[in-house]
Amino acid sequence: MADRDGKIWMDGQMVDWRDAKIHVLTHTLHYGCGAFEGVRAYNTVNGTAIFRLEDHTERLLNSSKILRMKVPFSKEELNEAQKAVVRGNKLESCYLRPLTWIGDKKLGVSPKGNDIHVMVAAWAWGAYLGEEGMTRGIRVKTSSYARHHVNITMTQAKAVSNYTNSILANTEATDDGYDEALLLDTSGFVSEGSGENVFIVKDGVVYTPDLSAGALKGITRDTVLHICQDLGLELVQKRITRDEVYIADEAFFSGTAAEITPIRELDRIEIGSGSRGPITEKIQTAFFDIVNGRNPKYAHWLSKV
Ligand code: PMP
What pairing do the DSSP bridges indicate for beta strands 180-184 and 190-193? Predict the structure, then answer.
C-alpha cells in the first residue's frame, strides 16, 4: 500500500504518498495509543461528497480526548484536510482514513513530552465484506474472543489498540471459513462485529445492542436509527443474546466500510430464510439513497469536496 502515487495529509502538509513515513520509535507503534476514523466519500448525484464528515471528525476528536491526546488541529482544519485529500487524489468515491498518534520524542509508557500527530489518507475501496455479501448475506461466527469490557480500553474511543481484539476475532472467523466474527461482551451478550454494529429483525421490530455491551457508537448505526424512524419501523436498543440472533427473521451489520451488509448465517445456523431479508433490503436501499444524495432530507449529511 505504501508504494503508490498520490498525496497524504500529514500534520498540515500534503506529502507524496511514498514519503508519508514515521520513525520506528513512534510511541503509538509500541504501545498502541492512537485513534482513527473510517469515513467514506460517495460520487453523489450532486458530485463527490463526504458522508457525515462533521460526525466522523467529532468522533476522532472525542476518541483522542478519551485517550488524553491533545490534537493540535481544529475540527474545521480536519474537515478541510479530509476534503483536500479527496480532491488531491482526484477520487470520485473513496474510503478515508484519518489517524491521530503519539510521536517519537521519547519511549516509555508515559506519553508525556511527545507530540500528537495527525494524518489523513484516502483510496478507492469497494464493498468491505464482498459485493456478493451485499445481496446474498454473509456467514458469521460467534467469536471465542470477548469484546472489550467498557472499563478496559474505552469502547467509545475508536482506539487503535481496540483493534487487536478485532483482528483476533476476524482472523479466527475467516480462518474457520466464515466472512466475519460476532463478538459478545464479557457477560455473554451480543456486542458487535470486528468492525461493524449489528442489528436483528424479529416480527417486524428492529433490535440492536445498547452501548453498554461495549459496541462503538457507529455513525452508520445512527443512520439506521434515522432510517427506521422514516420507514415507520420500531427500533429497540437492548441486551441481545446469541440465540436471539439464531431465531431472528433477519440480521445485518452496519458500518462505514461494511455499509449495510446482510447476515445470512450465524454459527452455521440459517437466519430466517438464509438470505437478505425484506426489511434489511429496505434499510439498505434507504441507506444507499441517502449516501448517494438521492434523499434531500439528509442533504446536510453530505459535505461536498
Ligand atoms: N464497531 C466497530 C468496532 C467499528 O470498527 C466500526 C467501524 N468504524 C463500527 C462499529 C461502525 O461504526 P461506523 O458506522 O461509525 O463506521
Answer: antiparallel
What distance in angstroms lies between residue 216's CA and the mean position of ligand 1's atoms? 6
ipTM of the assembly? Answer: 0.99
CA distance 47 to 94: 13
- What crossing angle do the helices spanning 75-88 and 53-66 adopt, rounded to 10°? 120
Q: Is the predicted pLDDT of residue 129 greater than 90, yes or no?
A: no
pLDDT tens string 51-83:
999 999 999 999 999 999 999 999 999 999 999
pTM over the 0.95 mark: yes
Instruction: Output the CATH code of domain 7-123.
Output: 3.30.470.10
Q: Which residue CA neighbors atom 4 of ligand 1 most closely? A: 195
The domain 131-291 belongs to what CATH superfamily?
A: D-amino Acid Aminotransferase, subunit A, domain 2 (3.20.10.10)
Measured between alpha carbons, how far is 236 from 204 in angstroms, rounded to an integer?
11
